[in-house]
Amino acid sequence: MPTVPTARHRRFLAQLARDHYLEGRSKVEIGKAHGLSRFQVARLLQEAVDTGVVTITIEADAGEEDGVAEQVAATLSLDSVVIVDIPDASQASQQMGRAALSLVGRQARAGMRIGLSWSRTLDSAAAFTPALPRCTIVQLAGALRLESHRPSSEIFTRLGQDPAVSMVRLPAPLLVTEAGTADDLRALPEISGTLAAADDLDLAVVSVASWAEGLSSVWGKCSPAQRQAGIDDGAIAEVSGRLFAADGSDVTTIDDRVIAVTLDQLRRATRTVGVARGAERARAVRAACAAGILDIAIIDRALADEILAEAVGPGAPAAEPSEFAPSSAEPSEVASAAAEESR
C-alpha cells in the first residue's frame, strides 16, 4: 500500500496532475518548470494516482456507455447518477467512499460550505481525501462505535489537517440512549454551533440506508422495541439517523435521541449527494428521492439494476413525485478522469 502523502505534498501532486491531465502540458514542460526530470515527473504523476490525488474512472464502467446512469437518473428524477463497478467485494466500502470523495474534489469551489455525514463508507476511504480549495467542512452527524469496527472519524481528522480547510467538528455520538442526554448535548455551544452550520450548505454528502437489520448502522444501536416502533411508524429508510417513509415523509421515532443534521436541512442544501450500495437498498434510495433530499446518487451496479427493474417490473410503481421532490431531471453526470487541485 502506498504511503499517504502529507497535505503539502498532496497539493504539489495535485498541481502537477492539473498541469498534465487538465492543461495538457508534457512531462518535459512540467519538469522544466519545477526543476525535475521527465522521469521524476512521471513517478510523481503515478504517485498521484496511487494515493488517490488523481482519480480516474472509466466511463463505460460507470454506466454511461450503456445509458444506465442516465436511465436511473431519469427514473429517480435526479440531476445525475454515478455508478461504481465493484470487482472486489472486500473493497466495496472503500471504492464507494473514494467515488464520493472524488466527486467532492471535483465539485468543491473556494468559499463553499460542504457538509459530510460520518459513515463507515467515507471513513474507509479517508486515505484518499482530496486536496480541496479553501472551504469549510461541516461534520453533519456524530460517529457510532460499532463492533468489529474501530471507533473512528479519520475522514474528519484528515480533512482537518488540510490548511485550506476550516473544519467544523461535531464532538458527539450520532445516537444516545436517553432523550435528555441528547438535549443536554445539543445545548453545548460546540454542538449547537455545528448543527446550525448545516443550515446553509453548498454541498452535502450522506449515506442512504434501509431501516432493516444489517442495512443500517443506527438500527444496530437501537433496542428491538425502538426498531419495531420505527417500522410501525412507517420508516423504511435512514439517513444520518433520520428516518423516513416510502413517500418521503419524516418519521420522528428516534429523533429525540439523534444528534445530526435534519432532513429539512438537507432539503435546503444547494446540492446533496447520497451514497448507497446493494440491491436491497433500492426502496431506501427511492424514498430518499421522494423526500427531496437527493440531487445526485452514487450507487453500485447491483443497486442501479434493481432500481430500473422495480421501475419497469410487473406491478412495480414508478417513482412517486413528492412535494419535496425536484420537478424535473437534468442529463446524467458521470465521473470522468479528474485531478484534485488546490485553488
UniProtKB/TrEMBL annotation:
Protein's UniProt name? DNA-binding transcriptional regulator LsrR, DeoR family
Q: Which family does it belong to?
A: Belongs to the SorC transcriptional regulatory family.
Any one Pfam family match given in the protein's UniProt record, by short name: Sugar-bind
Identify the residues that the record assigns to the Sugar-binding domain, covering every copy. Answer: 69-309
Q: Does the keyword Lipid metabolism apply?
A: no
Q: Does the keyword ATP-binding apply?
A: no
InterPro entries found in the cross-reference section: NagB/RpiA_transferase-like, SorC_transcr_regulators, Sugar-bd_dom_put
So which residues are the signal peptide here? none
